[in-house]
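Hi R.,

Here's the input for the zinc ion complex you asked about:
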Amino acid sequence: MIQKLLNINLLLLIACSFCFSQTAERWQQHVQYKMEIDMDVETFQFTGKQHIVYTNNSPDTLDRVFYHLFFNAFQPGSMMDVRSRSIEDPDGRVTDRIYHLKENEIGYHKIDKLEMDGAPCDYRVEGTVLEVDLPSPILPGASTLLYMEFNSQVPVQIRRSGRENKEGISLSMSQWYPKLSEYDYQGWHAHPYVGREFHGVWGDFDVSIHIDPSFIVGAGGVLKEGSAKKSPFKKKRVWEFRANNVHDFAWGADPDYNHITHTAECGVEMNMYYQDGPLASEHWPKLGKIMDEAFNFANARYGVYPYPVYNFIQGGDGGMEYPMATLITGERSLGSLVGVSVHELMHSWYQMILGTNEALYPWMDEGFTSFASAEIMNHLRKKGLIDGDVQVNPMYNSTKSFARFTQSGYEESLSTHADHYTTNRAYGAASYTKGSVFISQLEYVVGKDAFARGLKRYYNTWKFKHPNPNDFIRAMEKESGMELDWYKEYMMNTTHTIDYSISDITGDSGSTKISLTKTGLMPMPMDIEVVLKDGRKKYFTIPLRIMRGEKTHDYGAELKVLNDWPWTNASYSVSINQNLDDIESIRLDPLGKVADINTDDNEWPPKEVNP
Ligand SMILES: [Zn+2]
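And here is the predicted structure with zinc ion in place:
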């Protein structure tokens, strides 16, 4: 009996450790692409041979797979076209342009052959998604070879990718090949291409591009040594790129590209591909030195960039991020060129390395990126590399602007699927502005030091994986020792707003009583700055009871921790050991990090209101 009991215990132990490893190490699929692309630069048509070694690391048996056929979005009547013509506030770059494309201007991918381990597959093309019934299922842990031959037409550039963009770049090749959809712990993500961004399978790319010898190709990968050499016997030149541990591959090509290289202090090789123009010729050659300093800041604060190269490629319709590369428009002032370059580079951390699902959590890439860009631009101003004033809180304007937007009637919850916001305006305000405020306000909640450690912990735990909002919050909880679920739930799943005020200040002998009111539905810890008449400043913090912890330092000073504030209570008062006569002013949230919808009542003495 004893022996038997022991065995059962052992089995339980094994079962439990299995459960544990399943949650600690989330499984993910793996893909290895080898593509041979033959481009005709006269017709903008190309053929492709694609070998994919697909490994099913999931615990599920897969009897079908999906591919994205992004170029099919650029056809009259496509979901992207209808959406753009029916949404209240269409993207100015799209409007009804897809609807008016001619046969030789549309985009398409046509499948000529599709096999799994040599056996033909049944498939259907449904707009931008290819549904494939596999001839035999892929078992958990098994790998399979998916082979495809396809022919495609590059659409006139309308959104992100395409031919002949408005600056005359021949080929902006992003979201440009039949791309396997991701299957992860949340299931398949075969989202139709309606206009938003992407989610992909982690893996390696080996891409050979055969193209007219007059063209220069820049791509998100490392050019294979000896490739791209002109051959006098061949009509085309072959550019072969490798990109390992990424989830996408993009490139641009033009006969007029200048190519300059700058090796950053951190060792990353930056390549700039741009064509001459009144602004581009002057500003692009300055980009390397400035972005070098951006890399220094980013590596130190957000985690070390792991790839050998990064490429700034002129193309597209603004700025769009891809692994090891960005496609940006080039005719810009220096400030604008640096601004877009910093933003797209920061997506290397937030989406390219921390591969968040942009359809479900668009704020996790745009929000983090906007936050990091604000910090880096401020740093570059501090270093004198770009013009402008250095700010104490570089997120001040975004925080104010988000607080204003909550009052517009257009706000939708951050938990909305990226494609399904009612308006483009609501998507933008949520994913960029509220997303960045999410991060910046969290720094206020946990304090600068815990936040800095949390950013690194999040990066080091989740790089080359698909983190979700909870994974980020858990990293911050572990570094701060605070409970932060309430913060995530309020910020992500509600549109509740924050509104605190100083309701009364009264003096007693040797002490001052501060009374505060919470009017908004979302609770926050409250920091108080007391400025004394002799110029000294004192800092206090009121933690929320549900935080089960508090910060003790911030503003470069020690914080006096006051009694906690239960979120159910609309009012709070505290007496501090300070003579009211010695106090010059009292202010809530001194740096303006909190998206309080009315800050006029956050100061004492009250602000003079103009009659
Ligand atoms: Zn972005």
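One thing worth noting: The pocket of zinc ion is lined by residues 343, 347, 366, 369 (CB under 6 Å).

Cheers,
M.
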